[in-house]
Structure formats: C-alpha cells, structure tokens
C-alpha cells in the first residue's frame, strides 16, 4: 500500500534510507549465490514475476494505491541481500513500464517516486520479513510445515501489515490533510496483508515441495532430519 500523490515524494530521508539499504546489500556480494546454475533461472523468473506484480495495482479514491509486494517471497527464495538488490532492479523496470504505459516522456518521469516505492514496497517489508524469519528459526521447531506456514504465510502477512502501517503513519505525518480516512487505510492494509500472505505462502509451499533448491533459506539438513 502506498500513495500516488507526488507531493509526498520530496522527503530526502527516503533516498538516504534506500541508498543505505542498497549499500549494505551490495557489500554482502549477494551475486555469488547466482553461481549456482539451478538458482539463476529461478532468480530471473522471480524478477520478471515481481516486476509484473508491481505493475498491477488498484487505486482508491484520493490516490491510495493497493498492490502486492513480493518482498517476502524474494527474501525467502534468495536471502535478504540478494532480495534487496533484486527488488531495486524490479523497482526501476516496473516504474519504466508504468511510465511507458501512461505515455510519459523521459522529462515527465516521476523519478522521486522510485525511492518511495523502494522503501515501502521492498526495503521495509523485506527487513521485517528477514527479522521475523530469523526469530522463527531460533524459536520454532525445524519442520517443513513450520517453514511454509511461518516463512510463507505469517511473515508475508505481517510484513505487509507492518510496512503498510508505517507508510500510512509517514504519509499522515508528511501531509496530515490528505483525503484518506482511517477506515480506508485499515481496509487497504488488511486487504494487502491477506493477498500477500496467500500468494507468498502458496508459492513457497510449491517451491519447497517441488524445487527446494530454489529456496536458499530452506536447508534439507535442517528441516528434513530423521
């Protein structure tokens, strides 16, 4: 969930936060994971899927936008560093696609929204997902069902809710006079969380069962012990 109003996009803090997250992710050299031949096709396919996901959205009255994130899915499949780098590429590609479909020229591209989209659709939900998954690995039994239910469904829903609530608070702090009611905002967050949990959980379940080599956070020696 985010807003389509350009008046909210001038906060330089979003740029600083985005660059800091990207710098950390790049410092981890996550591209080494792609040396696995089995992971390269999955990574490219996931990038295309999430880029398409980011171009499908519903805009409510007043400019409130609801769209699925895919951040938890990327973190679960590829780990946090590679997910952050990949989601930035997705952000750029999907924004170019949206601007092209809108018929905008290069001079009219809304480049500041690139950073807002990255923070609320990628960076924050990815960080929440990684933190929750780390907590689950330390506290919950290592079982495939626990992994699918926790990493796929619960993490995705909670990350979407957390990012949506944080974005709503930031939006009201930046521009308290926006035409969004509390009921509309809560409804958008709940809808987003349920959709994100269902989509991510379903895909994680399929990949864990049929393509576990695509899920770097799922290790056979940990979750399939006798």
From TrEMBL:
Subcellular location per the Swiss-Prot or TrEMBL entry: Cell membrane
Keyword check for Transmembrane: yes
Gene3D superfamilies listed in its UniProt record: 1.10.1760.20
Organism: Cupriavidus yeoncheonensis
InterPro entries named in the record: CbiM/NikMN
UniProt-recorded name of the protein: Energy-coupling factor ABC transporter permease
Cellular component terms (Gene Ontology): plasma membrane
GO BP annotation list: transition metal ion transport
Protein's membrane topology: Multi-pass membrane protein
Segments passing through the bilayer: 41-66, 73-98, 118-136, 145-166, 186-210
Keywords: Cell membrane, Membrane, Transmembrane, Transmembrane helix, Transport
């Amino acid at each position: 969930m985010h807003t389509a109003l350009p008046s909210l996009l001038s906060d330089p803090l979003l740029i600083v936060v985005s660059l800091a997250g990207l710098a950390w992710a790049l410092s981890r050299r996550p591209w080494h994971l792609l040396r696995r031949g089995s992971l390269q096709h999955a990574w490219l396919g996931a990038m295309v899927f999430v880029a398409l996901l980011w171009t499908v959205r519903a805009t409510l009255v007043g400019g409130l936008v609801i769209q699925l994130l895919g951040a938890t899915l990327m973190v679960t499949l590829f780990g946090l560093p590679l997910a952050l780098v990949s989601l930035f590429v997705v952000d750029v590609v999907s924004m170019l696609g949206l601007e092209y479909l809108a018929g905008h020229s290069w001079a009219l591209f809304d480049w500041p929204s690139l950073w807002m989209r990255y923070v609320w659709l990628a960076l924050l939900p990815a960080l929440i997902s990684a933190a929750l998954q780390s907590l689950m690995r330390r506290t919950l039994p290592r079982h495939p069902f626990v992994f699918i239910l926790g990493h796929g469904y619960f993490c995705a829903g909670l990350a979407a809710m957390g990012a949506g609530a944080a974005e709503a608070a930031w939006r009201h702090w930046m521009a308290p006079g926006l035409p969004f009611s509390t009921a509309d905002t809560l409804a958008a967050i709940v809808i987003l969380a349920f959709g994100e949990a269902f989509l991510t959980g379903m895909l994680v379940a399929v990949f864990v069962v049929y393509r576990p080599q695509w899920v770097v956070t799922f290790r056979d020696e940990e979750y399939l012990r006798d």
